[in-house]
Amino acid sequence: MGQPVVVSERATAKPGTFRFEANRVLTGMAHERYVQNEEVTGDRPPDELARRLFARGGVAAVHVYANVATVELSRGGTTEGLKEIIEGLYTYYRPGVEPAIP
Predict the structure, then answer these.
(1) Where are the alpha helices (H) located in the chain, listed in sequence order?
(2) SS3 assignment, position 48
(3) What would the pLDDT profile of 2-55 be if each residue is shown by its tens digit?
Protein backbone atom coordinates (compact mmCIF):
# COMPACT_ATOMS: atom_id res chain seq x y z
CA MET A 1 0.00 0.00 0.00
CA GLY A 2 2.87 2.41 0.63
CA GLN A 3 3.21 4.82 3.50
CA PRO A 4 0.02 6.68 4.43
CA VAL A 5 0.67 10.40 4.30
CA VAL A 6 -1.48 12.93 6.13
CA VAL A 7 -1.28 16.53 4.92
CA SER A 8 -2.62 19.76 6.40
CA GLU A 9 -3.18 22.80 4.20
CA ARG A 10 -2.62 26.38 5.39
CA ALA A 11 -2.76 29.71 3.61
CA THR A 12 0.29 31.95 4.01
CA ALA A 13 0.44 35.73 4.38
CA LYS A 14 1.27 35.97 0.67
CA PRO A 15 -1.88 35.78 -1.49
CA GLY A 16 -1.96 32.74 -3.77
CA THR A 17 0.65 30.85 -1.74
CA PHE A 18 -0.23 27.83 0.37
CA ARG A 19 1.76 25.62 2.72
CA PHE A 20 1.15 21.87 2.85
CA GLU A 21 2.63 20.11 5.89
CA ALA A 22 3.01 16.32 5.67
CA ASN A 23 3.70 13.73 8.35
CA ARG A 24 6.57 12.38 6.21
CA VAL A 25 9.85 14.05 5.31
CA LEU A 26 10.16 14.79 1.60
CA THR A 27 13.67 16.26 1.28
CA GLY A 28 15.68 15.90 4.45
CA MET A 29 17.56 19.16 5.06
CA ALA A 30 17.76 20.28 1.43
CA HIS A 31 15.68 23.13 -0.04
CA GLU A 32 14.27 22.32 -3.47
CA ARG A 33 12.60 24.93 -5.71
CA TYR A 34 10.80 24.24 -8.96
CA VAL A 35 9.29 26.74 -11.37
CA GLN A 36 6.59 26.18 -13.95
CA ASN A 37 7.84 25.55 -17.50
CA GLU A 38 11.30 24.47 -16.31
CA GLU A 39 12.16 20.80 -16.69
CA VAL A 40 12.10 18.84 -13.43
CA THR A 41 14.97 16.36 -13.49
CA GLY A 42 15.71 13.64 -10.97
CA ASP A 43 13.67 10.87 -9.43
CA ARG A 44 13.64 11.84 -5.77
CA PRO A 45 10.34 12.39 -3.93
CA PRO A 46 10.43 16.21 -4.22
CA ASP A 47 11.12 15.94 -7.97
CA GLU A 48 8.18 13.60 -8.49
CA LEU A 49 5.94 15.75 -6.30
CA ALA A 50 6.76 18.85 -8.35
CA ARG A 51 6.05 16.99 -11.61
CA ARG A 52 2.67 15.82 -10.30
CA LEU A 53 1.70 19.27 -9.05
CA PHE A 54 2.67 20.97 -12.33
CA ALA A 55 0.86 18.27 -14.34
CA ARG A 56 -2.33 19.07 -12.45
CA GLY A 57 -2.11 22.67 -13.66
CA GLY A 58 -2.63 26.00 -11.93
CA VAL A 59 0.74 25.86 -10.13
CA ALA A 60 3.43 28.49 -10.79
CA ALA A 61 6.14 27.32 -8.36
CA VAL A 62 6.85 24.68 -5.73
CA HIS A 63 9.32 24.84 -2.84
CA VAL A 64 9.92 21.71 -0.77
CA TYR A 65 11.84 21.61 2.50
CA ALA A 66 11.73 18.70 4.94
CA ASN A 67 8.02 17.89 5.35
CA VAL A 68 6.63 21.18 3.96
CA ALA A 69 5.65 21.90 0.36
CA THR A 70 4.92 25.54 -0.38
CA VAL A 71 2.90 26.04 -3.55
CA GLU A 72 2.50 29.31 -5.44
CA LEU A 73 -0.60 29.21 -7.60
CA SER A 74 -0.83 30.59 -11.11
CA ARG A 75 -3.34 33.37 -11.74
CA GLY A 76 -6.78 31.79 -11.36
CA GLY A 77 -5.37 28.59 -9.84
CA THR A 78 -6.97 26.85 -6.87
CA THR A 79 -5.75 24.39 -4.25
CA GLU A 80 -8.42 21.85 -5.17
CA GLY A 81 -6.79 18.42 -5.38
CA LEU A 82 -3.28 19.51 -4.33
CA LYS A 83 -3.55 17.98 -0.85
CA GLU A 84 -4.58 14.64 -2.36
CA ILE A 85 -1.64 14.68 -4.78
CA ILE A 86 0.77 15.14 -1.88
CA GLU A 87 -0.98 12.49 0.23
CA GLY A 88 -0.73 10.03 -2.67
CA LEU A 89 3.00 10.54 -3.23
CA TYR A 90 4.06 7.38 -1.36
CA THR A 91 1.06 5.22 -2.27
CA TYR A 92 2.40 2.71 -4.74
CA TYR A 93 -0.48 0.27 -5.06
CA ARG A 94 -3.76 1.80 -6.12
CA PRO A 95 -6.95 0.04 -7.17
CA GLY A 96 -6.62 -1.23 -10.73
CA VAL A 97 -2.79 -1.04 -10.77
CA GLU A 98 -0.84 -4.27 -11.05
CA PRO A 99 1.95 -4.42 -8.45
CA ALA A 100 5.45 -4.85 -9.83
CA ILE A 101 6.95 -8.25 -9.06
CA PRO A 102 10.76 -8.22 -8.93
Answers:
(1) 45-56, 82-87
(2) helix
(3) 567 899 999 999 999 999 999 989 888 889 999 999 999 999 999 999 999 999
The CB-based long-range contact list for 68-72 (8 Å cut-off, 24+ gap) reads 68/19, 68/20, 68/21, 68/22, 69/19, 69/20, 69/22, 69/26, 70/12, 70/17, 70/18, 70/19, 70/20, 71/17, 71/18, 71/19, 71/20, 72/14, 72/16, 72/17
Please state the pTM of the whole predicted model. Answer: 0.86
Sheet holding 31-35, edge to edge: 7-11, 17-22, 68-73, 59-65, 31-35
- For residue 76, give the H/E element and its range: none
Q: What pLDDT score does 90 carry?
A: 80
74/95 Cα distance (integer angstroms) = 31
Phi, psi at 29, each rounded to 5°: -100, 10
